[in-house]
Amino acid sequence: MRRKGLAIMAAQTVAVSTDSSTGAVDLGPAAALSCRECGERFELGPLFACASCFGPLEVAYDLPSGSPDELKKRIEAGPNNIWRYAPLLPVPADVADKPNINPGFTKLVKADNLARELGVTGGLYVKDDSGNPTHSFKDRVVAIAVEAARAFGFTTLSCSSTGNLAGAVGAAAARAGFRSCVFIPHDLEQGKVVMAAVYGGELVGIEGNYDDVNRFCSELIGDPLGEGWGFVNVNLRPYYGEGSKTLAYEICEQLGWQLPDQLVIPIASGSQLTKIDKGLQELIKLGLVEDKPYKIFGAQAEGCSPVSTAFKAGHDVVRPQKPNTIAKSLAIGNPADGPYVLDIARRTGGAVEDVDDEQIVDAIKLLARTEGIFAETAGGVTVGVTRKLIEAGLLDPTLTTVVLNTGDGLKTLDAVAPTTGPTATIRPSLDAFRDAGLANG
Ligand SMILES: *Cc1c(COP(=O)(O)O)cnc(C)c1O
User: Fold this and answer.
1) 365 lines ligand 1 (CB under 6 A)
2) Pocket flag, ligand 1, residue 237 (CB < 6 Å)
3) Looking at ligand 1, which atom is closest to the CA of residue 266?
4) In this predicted structure, what is the pLDDT of residue 262?
């Protein structure tokens, strides 16, 4: 049923793209879309499923030729955002001159205090994507989708979102001059809802979980009601996904053009994890980093752990789950890229692990008190999973490890508010302060 729907969709969008195209689409080094399953190639367009086998499509490139040193210099001379990697992304060469939210080049924090707590001796880093314009990693993927939407002539941007994506689309649409109409589960954290609404686009709460929202959007996209809409994570998904490669590029550049030994990455749909792997592979192919093994570890919340459950059971297929966790940004019960995540974790010698809600809150507080970084629940998931993997002997504490924090704790205050507050509340008098027992000595 679902596959048939996708096939119809693929055929329709082919028609749309050929009708409306008046010349070659300029998305820089992007050469075509290719099917991840059968390898068939398609012209660049708003397509997401292979017309032959229904497999997911991804962007194929004519990557830059020339010496690695030249390319490094060119990148290093670029702007302090993801556009420094424009030669490796599906965007036009003059992308930095267009109105966009210009995310990226966030801090890679050497987390020595956290390393001491966790017993890591080989170098522990937190890639802190809370520093993006709407305070999550989603600005990276949306910035690329905006350029694709521009190239294909869409005027409305849309998405199905677990929260952060809705805010990123709202902001990018406002800045780049698109209308936006985004869809979220109705019961998200207040911080996510306000962030999604404040940029002035349309925000629709759907009575259901993310998988219901996603299903609704798939119907809308095949209906005249959604005609001409660019859904960043549906019909623009192949382009959107490429934004996550910039995390791989930045981490390696910030490590002095070196691969880390181990990465701990959160999983919602699994797109980010698979594209970070794609980015690392490209850097190796281009000679920008030395080729050596690295391990990729995936992190989920126990209350939504379809991929880690499959990993531990040794399965290749991912059985959908009904999410129930405070890590709402990762609460996708039927992750589109789940099987590819399993492949990558197994191929690189990594693993997929999960932590429960209490461990997530503990990990948020651990990162805050050791490094001064206030992560959203997804960051609690990666830090918590890192600790668990070290204890289980799966993550080697003597190797260089990068843990991703993909969002800002201010958006998920609800997670820590019940167990976090003032040490004391007192009258404004020295006596009262003395009685509270907090003075020096
Ligand atoms: C969306 C999201 C992710 C990862 O999403 P994928 O669908 O796996 O690419 C991770 N962290 C946060 C905070 C997110 O919002």
Assistant:
1) no
2) no
3) 10
4) 98
CA of 217 to the centre of ligand 1 (A): 18
Residue type, position 269, single letter:
S
Q: What is the DSSP letter of 304?
A: B
- Measured between alpha carbons, how far is 227 from 78 in angstroms, rounded to an integer? 37
Query: Thinking of the domain 108-135+244-419, which architecture would CATH place it in?
Result: 3-Layer(aba) Sandwich (3.40)
CB of 407 sitting under 6 A from ligand 1: yes
Residue nearest (by alpha carbon) to ligand 1 atom 7: 269
- The CA-based dihedral angle spanning residues 393, 398, 404, 410, taken in that order and rounded to the nearest 10 degrees: 90
- Taking only the tens place, the pLDDT of each residue in 306-353 is 999 999 999 999 999 999 999 999 999 999 999 999 999 999 999 999
For the CA of 270, the closest atom of ligand 1 is 8
The CATH number of domain 6-64+138-240, selected from 3.40.50.1100, 1.20.58.60, 3.40.980.10, 3.30.559.70: 3.40.50.1100
Atom of ligand 1 nearest to the CA of 141: 9
Residue 310 CB contacts under 8 Å (≥ 6 apart), including other chains: 316, 317, 318, 319, 338, 342, 352
Does the structure show a pLDDT above 50 at 15? Answer: no
Residue ranges per structural domain of the chain:
6-64+138-240, 68-97, 108-135+244-419
Taking residues 374-391, what's their average pLDDT? Answer: 98
pTM: 0.94
Q: Are 176 and 146 in contact (CB under 8 A)?
A: yes
Q: Which of 130, 135, 137, 404 most suits a substitution to test ligand 1, by most atoms within 8 Å of the C-beta?
A: 137
